[in-house]
Amino acid sequence: ARTAARPATAPAAPAAQNATADVVIVGAGLSGLAAARDLVAAGRSVLVLEARERPGGRVYGMPLGDGTTSEGGAEFIGPTQDRIAALAKDMGVATYLTYNSGKNVYYRNGKRSEYATDGVLGAVPPDWGVVDLEVALLKLGSMAKDVPVGQPWKAAKAEEWDAQTFYTWSRSNSLSSGARFLMDEFISSTMSVRSQDVSLLYVLNYIASAGNESNAGSVDRLIDTKGGGQESRFVGGSQEVPVRLAAKLGDIVRYNTAVRSITTDGGGATVVADGLTVAAKRVVVAMSPAIAGKIDFSPALPASRAQLMQRYPMGSICKFVAVYDTPFWRADGLTGQAVSDSGAIDATFDNSPPDASRGIMMGFMNQANIRKLDGASADEVRAAGLASFATFYGDKAKSPVRTAFQRWDNEIWSGGGPVGIAPPGVLTGFGEALRAPCGPIHWAGTETSDYWTGYMDGAVRSGERVAKEVHASL
Ligand SMILES: Cc1cc2nc3c(=O)[nH]c(=O)nc-3n(C[C@H](O)[C@H](O)[C@H](O)COP(=O)(O)OP(=O)(O)OC[C@H]3O[C@@H](n4cnc5c(N)ncnc54)[C@H](O)[C@@H]3O)c2cc1C
């Protein structure tokens, strides 16, 4: 019966088109778009091939179901993130301060407490472990100063630091359970992996990278709201930056055009995508190493690059938001920021629009928390998210007008988020292959950036770096 139900002649697939370009850029995330912009400005002919139906990749305006959106991926920008700041300015996208007035919530061992964010030492959680924590963070900060930004494998102690996980280091350098919890939370909130998943050297490079050419990276700049990476947001949402840049680039950006294979030959390459085959002099692969590994490269890439792509996994993350008539937690004297050791959500932020015309609470379902919800229905994810919000902000949190969430680990073209991380042994064994071109194939993506790797700023920097590299090679 199944066979009989089929039309006698299957509709013909649309004929694949052929094209030529100086440079094919694979991926219209911020890194690919930034590269395209500079290469076009340098007079090169460029095609950007994007698998999704939209630009932005890990930057995404998540639909709330009422015609508006909330940031479902990257959201915040902070001091020293100069390249995303410059790009946003050029695109006419303004920023505003993340809501940060009042007290934060700390939930640990079944006890909820509130703590000031404007003390002399900044926002310090009410846990005896913080003394221990501060000592450990000072040590980390000082070790990070010995890491050459973007080339951690060249640190004098690279082998020693890359032979252990962050978990091993944090357990040998802190005694209290509070400090250990907060160090795990530092890794979870910045990379969305567990401390035992990631190399100490990778963490030190992440710290070193949280700065710019004139300001050394620091732990505070990574984790702080005021003065740190979470300081500001974009008016209209971060997706305005890639959406406007892609619109300026026009029809050189092709959507629903997943690249399946890249064949290199005699100095150039043939890029086969859904519905389009392009002969190009150079190819820029602008995405995380793990997702680049899904492309079929022929002939095989050098082993160091091929194996790097097998060894650089993505974190697991989901962003959950609930919309309320008002940001009611503000009236209760709260910032909307919470840290928790239990429940589905381990960190929250006030995601309300700048005019506070409605309240939006955002929670991160990080690493193991979201994996526990593998196979959960949307209603179950929603119930778990609202239960966490109620623990932090009271019963009012149980009755939102609407909710929405974005699971990045279920996204075929991201494979997780926010960033690809290196387990022990990878940076020292394979790190050089992150940026090294393979013949006509060049690599971009935030994972390849020196400063602000893992962030939008790192993505833009990597695009600008690869554009120079490719232009010089032609
Ligand atoms: C939940 C979450 C929260 C975050 N929060 C922040 C934050 O607050 N601040 C911040 O600065 N950063 C944040 N980030 C990180 C930030 O989103 C990334 O660093 C940045 O967007 C990466 O850009 P990219 O261009 O390197 O990669 P991507 O954005 O991943 O772009 C890669 C592109 O390639 C496309 N693609 C993949 N495979 C193919 C293929 N075979 N063919 C064609 N196209 C393909 C993808 O669809 C995608 O568009 C967050 C990320 C997540 C997921």
Helix content: 25-40%
What is the helix tally?
Answer: 17
- Main sheet record: 8 strands, mixed
Termini separation comes to 58 Å
Provide the CATH superfamily of the largest domain. FAD/NAD(P)-binding domain
Overall description:
Helix content is 32%, strand content 22%. With 474 residues, it is of the alpha/beta class. The protein is globular and about 65 Å long. The chain has three domains: 143 residues, FAD/NAD(P)-binding domain (3-Layer(bba) Sandwich); 122 residues, Polyamine Oxidase, Chain A, domain 2 (Alpha-Beta Complex), CATH 3.90.660.10; 96 residues, Guanine Nucleotide Dissociation Inhibitor, domain 1 (Orthogonal Bundle), CATH 1.10.405.10. The strands form four sheets. Strands 1, 2, 9, 10, 11, 12, 13 and 19 form an eight-stranded mixed sheet that branches. Helix 4 crosses helix 8. Bound molecules: flavin-adenine dinucleotide (FAD).
Give a quick set of tags describing it.
alpha/beta; FAD/NAD(P)-binding domain; Polyamine Oxidase, Chain A, domain 2; Guanine Nucleotide Dissociation Inhibitor, domain 1; eight-stranded mixed β-sheet; disordered N terminus; binds flavin-adenine dinucleotide; Flavin monoamine oxidase family protein
